[in-house]
Amino acid sequence: MKLIDFDEKFNHKVAKMLEKHAGERTEEEWEDAIAQAYRQYGETYLAELGDTPHGYFAKMGDAQLIETLKEYLLQGISVPDFLCEEIERRKATDASLALLRETDEELVQYALNLIGADPKAMERYAQMLGEDAYDEHVKDALADLLKTSSDAVKEQMLSLICTENRPYALEVLSRCKERDERVLDALLTAFRMEEGQDVPLYAGYLAAYGDERALPALLDRIDREDIDFVTFQELKFAIEALGGEYDKARDFSEDEAYKKVKAAGLDTDIFTSKKVN
Question: Do residues 90 and 62 touch, judged by C-beta distance below 8 A?
Answer without folding.
Answer: yes
